[in-house]
Amino acid sequence: MTIVTRIGRSMTLGLVFIGELVRSSIAVARQVLGDSSQLKPAILAVPLDLRSRAGVTTLANCVSLTPGTTSLHVSEDLSTLYVHVLDAPQPEAVVDSIKNTFETRIKEIEG
């Protein structure tokens, strides 16, 4: 993979992150200002397909920097990321979102 391709894919990840940052910020603001009794916090296990420590670290940072989610732990074998989510009425959808937004882009950068 050329450096130009890697830079382009990194820029795509950055744009995806900014989009998620804005979307999540709005969602968290609504949750905080609204009826918080309806929140369904959860700790989720996100299975990982990444191949490198750098990739897993990047994913964990993207998750932690996104409002409403915090990375808690990565399994020793790097196969699972544990994430706390402020509101997860559909846990599978949250896991799918993390995998389809951030992990997919990071895997492309890993090449």
UniProtKB/TrEMBL annotation:
Superkingdom, natural source: Bacteria
Membrane topology per record: Multi-pass membrane protein
A GO molecular function held by the record: monoatomic cation transmembrane transporter activity
Keyword Cytoplasm carried by entry: no
One cellular component term from this protein's GO annotations in UniProt: plasma membrane
Cross-referenced Pfam families: MNHE (PF01899)
InterPro entries given in the database record: Cation_antiport_E
Subcellular location(s) per record: Cell membrane
Record carries keyword Cell membrane: yes
Keywords: Cell membrane, Membrane, Transmembrane, Transmembrane helix
Family: Belongs to the CPA3 antiporters (TC 2.A.63) subunit E family.
Protein name: Monovalent cation/H+ antiporter subunit E
